[in-house]
Amino acid sequence: SYELTQPPSVSVSPRQTARITCSGDALPKNFAYWYQQKSGQAPVLVIYEDNKRASGIPERFSGSSSGTMATLTITGAQVEDEADYYCYSTDPSGNQYVFGPGTKVTVL
Amino acid sequence: EVSLAQSGGGLVKPGGSLRLSCVMSGYTFSYVWMSWVRQAPGKGLEWVGRIKSLSDGGTVDYAAPVQGRFTISRDDSNDTLFLQMNNMKIEDTGVYYCRSGIDYWGQGSLVTVSA
User: Fold this and answer.
1) What does the pLDDT read at residue B7?
2) Which of A50, A57, B3, B10 lies at a C-alpha separation of 20 to 30 Å from A32?
3) How far is CA A70 from CA A19, B47, B51, B54, B73, in A?
4) Do B47 and A96 lie within an 8 Å CB cutoff?
5) pLDDT (0 to 100) of residue A97
6) What is the average pLDDT score of chain B?
7) What is the pLDDT of residues A87-105, one digit of tens each?
């Protein structure tokens, strides 16, 4: 079955830049989406269609995609950005969807 | 403002059944592709399945672990999405979320499968 790969954790100091990667063989053909999930809460869409910021998301969040890798970048990370981040995309058939395993972002 | 209100979670024994509902307000439900996503305790998000809008054929696709046991349906006249779960297994335990399109999520329903 199709899988997306993410690093388990990323640590960043406040006001520094964090980059979270997501690898998948079908990413050259399919969009990547990024969700933020804080403890005990429902996920929130951060980035859609590789690089479009969702409504209400701060400008410090950006997305990009090249080849088989998509990247979520937090430029000038804030303490409130501590959360789990999941990439999401479609398998090569276009009929199955998959989340990456998630990346825990720590800001300290 | 789009809102998704879920109901129907609870405790069920292995092999049992449960039905979740998700009522949408603030948008035209019939236009939207809807999905179910679950999260086992302490684990990541897992896509369960998706139903297209009827105008796009109403096709339903499922993740392999639930194929043949779970059924997703929709009632556009009542703006409601359903997840019928049969022959449930312990590994089906978790919080289940409905989602509209890619952006709006329900509050989550806790489902526990235990003897």
Assistant:
1) 97
2) B3
3) 10, 19, 26, 32, 32
4) yes
5) 95
6) 97
7) 999 999 888 999 999 999 9
Flag whether residue B60 sits within 8 Å of chain A, measured between CB atoms. Answer: no
Q: Where are the beta strands (DSSP E) in A1-108?
A: 9-12, 17-23, 33-37, 44-48, 52-53, 61-66, 69-75, 83-90, 97-99, 103-107
Count of C-beta atoms within a 10 Å radius of residue A8: 8
Residues 6+ apart with CB under 8 A from A91: A1, A2, A26, A97, A98
Q: Does B61 touch chain A (CB under 8 A)?
A: yes
Q: Give the three-class secondary structure for B112.
A: strand
DSSP class of A5: B
Residue labelled with tokens 């701060």? A58
What was the pLDDT predicted at B111?
98
Is the Cβ–Cβ distance between B4 and B24 less than 8 Å? yes
Total beta-carbon pairs less than 8 A apart between chain A and chain B = 43
Testing the interface with B: which of A30, A39, A45, A53 to mutate, by most B Cβ within 10 A? A45
Condensed to tens digits (0 to 9), the pLDDT of residues B9-31 reads: 999 999 999 999 999 999 999 99
**Which one-letter amino acid corresponds to residue B109?**
S
